[in-house]
């Protein structure tokens, strides 16, 4: 049920605020039915309107803000003896993630969980897909990478923050990014909401359409080289996460 807080109406599902109760009710109804947000509704939120006056920065999430590799290494340690695997944890993560990218690029209709399953079974051919019942709950344990919390804390006065992830709604909800961050993200975009995975240009376009600015005025940050390059090809001002962190730490303006 929609809450009224300090004269504003809040969707109980996604926590966005609205001046008008009917928009909050529409937002909450959509969120409950679809487990996602509707961009045509959320553009009327206070958060979206406020973001228009700030420089927009869009972050990739996994292995950019949150340490996804760590949970895959933990998962590997739980299954390596079962299958007599000879990978190092780093090799396992590198190989599986490479296969995962290929599957996402060639099977855009697959759910995120299905793409992980396919990548896992390619990486470990004898594996039982039920092993992934050990992996997916680990997404709720994802931690911010070193220096990310401090970097985000310094951005709230200058930038409107968004994220764009290839992760599913269910797993994205489980790692509670806004609760972990010192600064709230105006909107968290998922591949499931967008109906397409990065690096398909349509994924980046969905974000640009919501923000409502020319794409060359939108800063995009990722820890994944392929994502940085594809976002740059799309037209975003694309910057690797480590470079962005240095700019924020030294109070430099992004050109």
Features:
255 residues; alpha/beta; Rossmann fold; three-stranded antiparallel β-sheet; globular
Q: Can you tell me the overall shape?
A: globular
Task: Give the CATH topology of the largest domain.
Answer: Rossmann fold
CATH architecture of the largest domain: 3-Layer(aba) Sandwich
- The whole-angstrom Rg is 19 Å
The strand order across the widest sheet is: 6-5-4-7-8
**CATH domain class of the largest domain:** Alpha Beta
How would you name the oligomeric state of the polypeptide chains in this document? single chain
Number of helical elements: 14
H-E order: EEEHHHEHHHHHEHHEHHEHEH
Count of the domains: 3
Helical amount among residues, as a percent range?
Answer: 40-55%
- Name the poorly predicted regions: none
Average predicted local confidence, pLDDT: 92
Beta-strand content: 5-15%
Description:
- By secondary structure, the protein is of the alpha/beta class.
- It has helices at residues 21-34, 39-42, 46-51, 68-79, 89-106, 112-123, 132-135, 148-153, 169-175, 177-180, 191-194, 201-211, 225-234, 241-249, and strands at residues 3-5, 8-10, 17-18, 55-59, 159-165, 187-190, 219-222, 237-240.
- The strands form two sheets. Strands 6-5-4-7-8 form a five-stranded parallel β-sheet. A three-stranded antiparallel β-sheet has the order 1-2-3.
- 47% of the residues lie in helices and 13% in strands.
- Helix 4 packs across helix 5 (89-106) and helix 5 packs across helix 6 (112-123).
- It starts with a strand and ends in a 6-residue tail after the last helix.
- It has three domains: 1-46, no CATH class; 52-66 and 144-255, 3-Layer(aba) Sandwich (Rossmann fold); 68-141.
- The longest helix has 18 residues, at 89-106.
- It is built from 14 helices and eight strands.
- The chain is globular.
């Amino acid at each position: 049920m929609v809450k009224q807080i300090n004269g504003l109406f809040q969707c109980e599902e996604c926590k966005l605020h609205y001046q008008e109760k009917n928009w909050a009710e529409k937002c909450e109804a959509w969120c409950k039915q679809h487990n996602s947000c509707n961009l045509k509704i959320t553009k009327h939120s206070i958060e979206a309107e406020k973001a228009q006056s700030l420089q927009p920065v869009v972050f990739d999430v996994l292995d950019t803000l949150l340490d996804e590799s760590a949970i895959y290494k933990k998962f590997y340690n739980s299954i390596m003896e079962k299958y007599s695997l000879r990978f190092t944890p780093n090799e396992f993560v590198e190989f599986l993630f490479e296969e995962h990218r290929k599957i996402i690029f060639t099977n855009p209709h697959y759910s995120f969980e299905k793409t992980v399953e396919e990548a896992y079974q390619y990486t470990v051919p004898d594996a039982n897909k039920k092993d992934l019942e050990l992996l997916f709950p680990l997404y709720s344990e994802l931690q911010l990478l070193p220096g990310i919390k401090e970097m985000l804390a310094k951005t709230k006065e200058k930038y409107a923050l968004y994220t764009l992830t290839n992760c599913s709604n269910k797993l994205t909800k489980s790692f509670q990014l806004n609760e972990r961050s010192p600064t709230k993200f105006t909107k968290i975009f998922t591949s499931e909401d967008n109906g397409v995975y990065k690096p398909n240009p349509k994924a980046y376009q969905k974000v640009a359409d919501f923000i409502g600015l020319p794409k060359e005025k939108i800063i995009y940050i990722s820890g994944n080289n392929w994502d940085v390059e594809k976002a740059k090809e799309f037209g975003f001002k694309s910057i690797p996460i480590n470079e962005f962190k240095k700019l924020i730490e030294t109070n430099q303006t992004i050109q």
